[in-house]
Amino acid sequence: MDIVMTVAGSDSGGGAGIQADLKTFQEIGVFGTTAITALTAQNTWGVEGIFPVEKDFVEQQMLTVFQDMPVRALKTGMLFSPEIIETVAQVLAEKNMFVVIDPVMIAKGGAALLQRSAIDAMKKHLLPIATVITPNIPEAAELSGITIVSEADVEKAAQILLQSGVKCVVMKGGHLEGDKATDSVYFADGTSFLMESRRIQTNQTHGTGCTFSAALTAFLGKGFEIKEAIIEAKKFVQLAISHPLHIGGGHGPTNHFAYKQYKDEVEVMVIEA
Ligand code: PXL
Q: Is 191 one of the annotated active-site residues of the chain?
């Protein structure tokens, strides 16, 4: 059994964070473990409260699992503070596993899931040891320090992020305009490709980013090559968005059951650079 870990925050509403990650791991058939960085009280309307976990206890959760289980791939989600980021980076620096960074900053309803001072810590400590980072456009703009409007800006921001030492950048295009949702993927060796899919008009998107990075982590844990893992994760999230569950009255969660049920109907076009 392939073992993976998520280091992230808990979403009591079950659509994002640790809960989305574990559901995704389970559907893909890997064994999920967790280190929880913060509890949130939330539903589909928004985040009502945040209760961070002490950095030493985040470390203890990770080390206790690592002592006993060979974790092949790990993702980070909501890390909340610079202290937690530095601690997680220190623990991971001595380990040999795939590391996926989902640079979670702001929840759909607007709540800050990362303190501003933590952005520098992420660039300095976490990116150098990461395999893949999966920013959306606003997150990529924050991390790279440039405004992103055009496709040229997307590439420029990705190149800035690659300089920090991360091996692969997945720029999620969901926040850009257009009838296609295009993600651009750049590798440190200079290669790149695009993934294009139909844009789905829906507000049932709570936890989309968590679900994509969790699926990517699960496929890496199963031994997929990085490129194949990214493409399969895109399929997982595309299906999760296109078969909504309509739970709650606000931004509803994505459907983690959909991949297993509808895997054969999904279309993601891969365009080589
Ligand atoms: O989708 C980002 C995210 C990550 N982690 C937690 C969240 C959210 C969004 O609400 O609540 C715990």
A: no
Active site residue 202: no
pLDDT digits over 9-39, tens only? 999 999 999 999 999 999 999 999 999 999 9
Alpha helix segments (H runs only) across the chain: 17-28, 55-68, 82-93, 118-121, 137-144, 151-162, 208-221, 226-242, 258-262
pTM, rounded to two decimals: 0.97
Ligand 1 site: residues with CB under 6 angstroms?
8-9, 11, 16-17, 40, 42, 77-78, 104, 107-108, 113, 207, 209-210
Which of 55, 108, 123, 172 is the catalytic position?
172
Task: Considering the domain delimited by 3-272, tell me its CATH architecture.
Answer: 3-Layer(aba) Sandwich (3.40)
Catalytic status, residue 124 = no
Given the residues 14, 134, 210, 217, select the one marked as catalytic.
210
- Indicate if 108 belongs to the active site: no
Q: Atom 10 (ligand 1): residue with closest C-alpha?
A: 107
Long-range CB pairs of 263-270, under 8 A, 24+ apart, other chains included: 263/235, 263/239, 265/239, 266/235, 266/238, 266/239, 266/242, 267/197, 267/198, 268/195, 268/196, 268/197, 268/231, 268/234, 268/235, 268/238, 269/195, 269/196, 269/197, 270/193, 270/194, 270/195, 270/231
Name the catalytic one among 9, 13, 32, 207.
Answer: 207
Q: pLDDT digits over 180-234, tens only? A: 889 999 999 999 999 998 888 899 999 999 999 999 999 999 999 999 999 999 9
Give the residue, out of 11, 12, 51, 172, with the most ligand 1 atoms within 8 A of its beta carbon, to mutate for a pocket test: 11
SS3 65: helix
